[in-house]
Amino acid sequence: MFAYLVVVGTILASVFAWTGQTSAGWIIDQVVKGETGRQQMMLQANRMKTLMWKKDGEPAAAFILDLDAGTITLVDYEERHFVTTTIQEYAQMTRGVQQMAAEMAEAMKEMQEAMKEMPPEQRKMMEQMMRSQMGQTKPTPEDCSEPRIEVRKTGQQATIAGYPAVRYDVLADGKPQSELWIAKDIAAWQELDPQKLERFSAEMAKLAACNSTRGRHGLPGDDPAWKLASEGYPVRTVDRSGSGGTVEVVKAEIRTIPAAEFQPPPSFARKTLREMMEQ
């Protein structure tokens, strides 16, 4: 669960655009094609909440960003607990987890090299034991490199969720990565102060480097594709790399959002960030 929330945090790190403040907020419902679960974004007065719903319609998890307070709140509805931490602590702790994963991957690589001289049956037993103890390892720093990203505006247009949208193609090292359909009439990012968001983005972008968070879940924090937020909101995101699907907005409306929506449920237990990461 925490790993998914980290991915969500990386997605939020990619937004930089702002042109002003409005009195009411935006509520945006979106779905992943082929799945029954849905996501909901709420943005109002320097606060952003991403709520993930399960297939049965019950809430699963939420990521709440409060730019004025400089805090991040992660809510686990299944376990009925939450953690609230500063942006700096969240980034520092997550970087530590990523570094640990990289070190574990390197240790496994060295052990596999050492096991080459073992008899096949003994080597197989050792590999199984290593996987059970260390889990699936993440790429080490030398296994990943940032591609050259290019964004091309096309002349293709469509109406999605009732909003006119223009298609942009995103290429990675010259190969199709995704297509983004941007609706300029959904000015949701106007709810967020640009300077405060930039500071948050700078912290989160550090987590995106060499991190396997591409695909339908989002792009690295410094990816120019998400700077299209200055043109509007992505009402359809189609993955062309083969690692994801299509995320599409089904409803977007302006509405005043109660302040309680940006707080964890009062009956939930509070945990530390370290306790939630260790789950």
Q: Keywords, please?
A:
33% strand; 279 residues; twelve-stranded mixed beta sheet; outer membrane lipoprotein receptor (LolB), chain A; 12 strands; 2 domains; alpha+beta
Strand content: 25-35%
Largest sheet geometry: 12 strands, mixed
Q: Termini separation (Å)? A: 8 Å
Q: Helicity, in percent?
A: 25-40%
Rg of Cα set = 20 Å
Q: How are helices and strands ordered from N to C?
A: HEEEEEEHHEEEHEEEH
Gross geometry: globular
The structural domain count equals 2
| CATH domain class name of the largest domain | Mainly Beta
The tally of beta strands, per DSSP, is: 12
Indicate the mean pLDDT. Answer: 76
Structural class assignment: alpha+beta
Task: Summarize the structure in words.
With 279 residues, the chain is of the alpha+beta class. The protein folds into two domains: 2-92 and 146-277, outer membrane lipoprotein receptor (LolB), chain A (Clam); 104-142, no CATH class. Helix content is 27%, strand content 33%. The protein contains five helices and twelve strands. A twelve-stranded mixed sheet has the order 7-8-9-10-11-1-2-3-4-5-6-12. A hairpin with a 2-residue loop joins strand 8 and strand 9. The longest helix is centred in the middle third of the chain and has 28 residues, at 87-114. The protein is globular and about 65 Å long. The N and C termini lie close together (8 Å). Mean pLDDT is 76; it is low at 6-22, 134-142 and 211-223.
